[in-house]
């Protein structure tokens, strides 16, 4: 850990120096570095701030968790994300080779957005959740193409199709509240809506101690989306090459039953938060409440 800190310090140090030299320039002095290296120094400065914030967040987590703190948990999440995103990338190629329409694009978008989300999550940046909204949108699109191809074709042909349409048609209507909450963390969104959106993430983090859930809502959401992507990848692999599908299940240490149970847990947790809103409205138009044709009791299955 000390070696890692020293390595990161060597990377971040130029950023700290940039701040010092900019302060000199503001005071009318000549910076110690030539103008040609200013862009690189500015980039280092941004990374320095990200590093400092991430370290501060990690220290807070360490103090809160005490003896249960284990930094390897972050490695576990990043490893799971690598397996999911890399397989999604491979499926993008394989589905393109067999002519699966827009499915390859959806796989590419889900893989790329997951990678971005993980990097921002590591930096304790709320915009990671905005990236995960894209993952969820594309997952719903991919799942609809797999389970209801005719409906998927109609949705693709309609210019008015929204992400919520894909969520509804793929059988994940109960995740609409999560889709809306994740969208509130997108770049450029109003930060005033983050509070209730974060409450949604906490509510969908059921099963955890309440105080712990309040501090792990984003991590839980990330892991849930990774598991959903892993399950969808395995389902497509079963159709493309059952042997590879079996190997993939072994690598990610899961099986279809466990993924189904995990998916149902996410759906039920999201359903419990269905009446929460991020914009001070209970209208079904904002996607935070059930549609008029959905019963107030959670359905037993979203298939």
Give the percentage of residues in beta strands: under 5%
The succession of helices and strands, N to C, reads: HHHHHHHHHHHH
The count of β-strands is: 0
Q: Major sheet: size, sense and barrel closure?
A: none
Number of domains: 2
The shape, in one word, is globular
What integer is the average pLDDT?
A: 80
Termini distance? Answer: 46 Å
Q: Radius of gyration, Cα only, in angstroms?
A: 22 Å
**What is the share of helical residues?**
over 70%
- Structural class based on helices, strands and sheet pairing: mainly alpha
Q: Which blocks of ≥5 consecutive residues have pLDDT under 50?
A: 280-303
Counting DSSP H or I runs of 4 or more residues, the number of helices is 12
Question: What would you say this structure looks like, in words?
Answer:
Residues 277-286 have a biased composition (Polar residues). Residues 277-303 are annotated as: Disordered. With 303 residues, this protein is an all-alpha fold. It folds into 2 domains: 2-66, no CATH class; 70-286, no CATH class. 70% of the residues lie in helices and 0% in strands. It contains 12 helices and no strands. The chain has helices at 2-26, 38-65, 72-97, 103-122, 127-147, 149-157, 163-169, 176-183, 194-203, 210-240, 242-252, 256-272. Helix 4 (103-122) runs antiparallel to helix 10 and helix 10 (210-240) packs across helix 12. Residues 280-303 have low confidence and may be disordered.
